[in-house]
Amino acid sequence: MAFSPGTYMEEYKNKLISPEKAAGLVKSGDWVQYGEFVCQPKTCDAALAKRKDELKDVKIRLVTMTWVPEVCKVDPERKSFIMNDWHFSGVSRKFQEADLCNYIPITYHEGPTIYDRGYTPVDVSFQPVTGMDKNGFFNISTSNSLSACVSRNSKIRVVEVNTSLPVCLGGYGESIHISDVDFIVESSDNPPPMNIPELIPTQVDRKIAELILEDMRNGDCIQLGIGGMPNVVGSLIAGSDLKDLGVHTEMLVDSFVDMYEAGKLTGKYKNINPGKMVYTFAMGTEKLYNFLDNNPACASFPVDYTNDPYLISLINNMVCINNAIEIDLFGQVASEASIGRQISGTGGQLDFILGSFDSKNGRGYVALSSTIQKKDGSLESRVVPGLSPGTIVTVPRSIAFTIVTEYGKFNLKGKSTWERAEGIINLAHPDFRDSLIAEAQEFKIWRRSNKIV
User: Fold this and answer.
1) I want to staple 432 with a disulfide (CB 3.0 to 4.6 A). Which of 155, 381, 388, 450 is the partner?
2) pLDDT by residue (tens digit) across 140-195?
3) Residue 392's closest CA among 330, 322, 337, 326?
């Protein structure tokens, strides 16, 4: 059967339903999937919230709660709606503290396989998309990571059309055809993607970024994680003499636009996806979203492609830069939770640290300031003797690569426990080094001949 634009529009009209009817597809006990990051089905969420008194135990998953869902507002006792997040945001943290949201542990590149194997059933999915094109495709915009696999595994597939979203080219997995959609809802107000301003960097962030930049070379391929410090690296690159850099990253942020406009990102030496800025989701400001709209320089892929450690390992000169919360004297990196409080998530940090080590000339960095200032103004060391109970290991000591603080860099690979203790203590704030040495002695990971700079 031949299809024409008129045929697709007829199918569109046949599948178009009201938000209330879309919410009516959900039954008590169902698993419901929302969107990812700055692409969320706010119209369907509002309609579902109105059914609070009719529903019980509806379990909702999303990726990074960037706004306050109506279902959470109307159900503070979690009798009707049980919210779960694959990667925590500031909003998720607040809801967790109020016992209104739970974290789902994940090694990010495994996400699509988890859905495909049926470990995470989806009864109804509400997927935000752009308007339908002449070929019958809806683009999933800035958030490709799990969306394609959720769509193919959902029992009932609903798309929420938002004409304010940028069209983000792929790659693959970036679009859903109308033949694969059960129902269509049109957004009530077409909200633009939420602006997430870049974090204001500190002088410590800048010092750490400068230390990392010392190791970078023309033709490197870069990945930047979430946070102020990785973005400083991007801004420093934009003003540097580096050239012909490539991009293969999990998250695309505003600093990539700055680097591109400064002529630093050509990708001409990338041995995989040459010339393309490869990413799985984008989150930033209007500058980023305008840059992405129908831009063939960028290509979004599902996260089992971008974050596959094996694929990352095949990319030459891979440079991966991520943040951490704490590191202990054994080399264990904690980047997501502290003493039982979930702060973010594993994300792609482990994926990229694994892949960067096996990359030809690859380098993997985990960066953190040596201290954090407490509410009373005193300093607390982020280099600790051992991780506290409830503080989750994100990168095991056997996998951790290069650690960076404002006091220097230290490569953990091949180092014994006493060498690690010495190198890591050298990265700590001087005020805490003596106490850390004493703890290392207690752990029997200190040699009398060790010298601290």
Assistant:
1) 381
2) 999 999 999 999 999 999 999 999 999 999 999 999 999 999 999 999 999 999 99
3) 337
**How crowded is residue 9: how many other Cβ atoms within 10 Å of its Cβ?**
14
> Which of 250, 326, 336, 439 is labelled catalytic?
250
**Cβ pair 120, 31 in contact under 8 A:** yes
3-state SS class at 306: helix
At 1, the pLDDT band (50, 70, 90 cuts) reads: very low
Closest CA to 355 of 278, 300, 297: 278
What confidence score (pLDDT) does residue 2 get? 52
Fold for 203-442, please state it. Glutaconate Coenzyme A-transferase (3.40.1080)
Domain 20-186 and domain 203-442, same fold? Reply is yes
The length of the chain in residues reads 453
Over residues 53-69, the pLDDT tens digits come to 999 999 999 999 999 99
Tens digit of each residue's pLDDT (9 = 90 or more) over 392-442: 999 999 999 999 999 999 999 999 999 999 999 999 999 999 999 999 999
Instruction: Report the alpha-carbon distance of residue 405 to residue 382 in Å, rounded.
Output: 10
pLDDT, position 301: 98
Considering the domain 20-186, what is its CATH architecture? 3-Layer(aba) Sandwich (3.40)
Q: Which amino acid is at 84?
A: N
Mean pLDDT of 444-450: 82
Q: Which helix (H) or strand (E) holds 323?
A: strand 318-323
Q: Provide the CB-side half-sphere exposure for 202 (13 A, CA).
A: 12
The helices-and-strands tally (H runs, E runs) of the chain is 16, 26
Nearest to 41 by CA among 112, 140, 156: 140
**333: helix, strand or coil:** strand
Write the pLDDT tens digit of every residue in 72-121: 999 999 999 999 999 999 999 999 999 999 999 999 999 999 999 999 99
Q: Where are the domains of the chain?
A: 20-186, 203-442
Alpha-carbon gap, residue 205 to 228, rounded angstroms: 7
Give the pairing type, strands 337-338 and 281-282. Answer: unpaired
What's the pLDDT at 450?
64
Measure Cα distances from 92 to 61, 89, 285, 344, 394 in Å: 12, 5, 20, 9, 19
3-state secondary structure 352-419: HHHHHHHCCCCEEEEECCCEEECCCCCEEECEECCCCCCCCCCECCCCCCEEEECCEEEECCCCCHHH
CA 93 to chain CA centroid, Å, is: 15
Task: Tell me, yes or no, if the pTM score tops 0.90.
Answer: yes
How would residue 358 be classed by pLDDT, with cut points 50, 70 and 90? very high
